[in-house]
């Protein structure tokens, strides 16, 4: 690759809460993954402590990297949705990793800033927050508002739902009117699989209206169809997903 790979950084003078909070979320998730292996427990704890530090930085020095790095990242990587969703996203992953009540309190105090229940991708974490919290607080009354918004997301994606707000190609690929469409098909499929696990644990189906009930099995089926389409067609298209060598 001959494209310049220039590095940039944020600081308290030039903050980037969305970038910092995303890093905190990634470090938290990584700490959970490594914690499962005894020989990596120390590394897991190191990741978690750094996640806590980075999140505190993101929250204390609030601001968008659009303002500090705009000339370099825009228009392709501008933050169009604000940094509030990333802050709640980071807190949600820290809640999952630590189980500490202060992160749950943070989420409750800031969830009013997360309003786009049908969006999930590099610039919007709204739907992911609702799905993640629903799974963390399964069968807990406190999860009700998150469940409701997560259910709305599912009904907005399910092709047979009367509330569907996305399109599907003739071959069955989820489609939204923006560039690099496979980011939507793959990221939405991830949420479908996660929420399918929640539905299975809660022994629940989602009522989308019009007689359409979304079950755990149906969500998995839809997610797998997106992956199957992507892998089957990637030989013919330039995609954001690396094709297996067999293709």
UniProtKB/TrEMBL annotation:
Keyword check for Hydrolase, yes or no.
yes
Reaction(s) catalyzed by this protein?
A: Endohydrolysis of (1->4)-beta-D-glucosidic linkages in cellulose, lichenin and cereal beta-D-glucans
EC no. given is 3.2.1.4
Note the InterPro entries from the entry.
6-hairpin_glycosidase_sf, 6hp_glycosidase-like_sf, Glyco_hydro_9
Q: Keywords on this record?
A: Carbohydrate metabolism, Cellulose degradation, Glycosidase, Hydrolase, Polysaccharide degradation
Q: Name one GO molecular function term.
A: cellulase activity
Q: Which residues form the Glycoside hydrolase family domain?
A: 1-231
Q: Name one GO biological process term.
A: cellulose catabolic process
The record's similarity note reads: Belongs to the glycosyl hydrolase 9 (cellulase E) family.
Indicate what this protein is called per its UniProt record: cellulase
Q: What does the organism's lineage look like at the top? A: Eukaryota, Viridiplantae, Streptophyta, Embryophyta, Tracheophyta
């Amino acid at each position: 690759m001959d494209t310049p790979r220039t590095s940039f950084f944020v600081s308290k003078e030039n903050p980037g809460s969305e970038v910092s909070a995303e890093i905190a979320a990634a470090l938290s998730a990584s700490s959970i993954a490594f914690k499962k292996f005894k020989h990596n427990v120390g590394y897991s704890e190191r990741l978690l402590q750094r996640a806590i530090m980075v999140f505190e930085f993101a929250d204390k020095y609030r601001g968008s990297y659009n303002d500090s790095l705009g000339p370099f990242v825009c228009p392709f990587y501008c933050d169009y949705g604000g940094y509030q969703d990333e802050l709640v996203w980071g807190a949600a992953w820290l809640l999952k990793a630590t189980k500490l009540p202060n992160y749950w309190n943070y989420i409750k105090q800031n969830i009013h800033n997360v309003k786009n229940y049908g969006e999930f991708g590099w610039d919007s974490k709204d739907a992911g927050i609702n799905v993640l919290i629903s799974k963390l607080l399964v069968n807990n009354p406190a999860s009700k508002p998150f469940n409701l918004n997560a259910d709305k997301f599912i009904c907005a994606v399910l092709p047979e739902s009367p509330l569907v707000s996305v399109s599907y190609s003739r071959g069955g690929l989820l489609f939204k009117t923006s560039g690099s469409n496979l980011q939507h098909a793959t990221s939405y499929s991830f949420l479908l699989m996660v929420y399918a696990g929640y539905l299975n644990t809660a022994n629940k189906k989602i009522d989308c209206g019009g007689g359409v009930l979304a079950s755990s099995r149906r969500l998995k089926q839809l997610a797998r169809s997106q992956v199957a389409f992507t892998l089957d067609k990637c030989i013919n298209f330039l995609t954001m997903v690396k094709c297996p060598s067999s293709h």
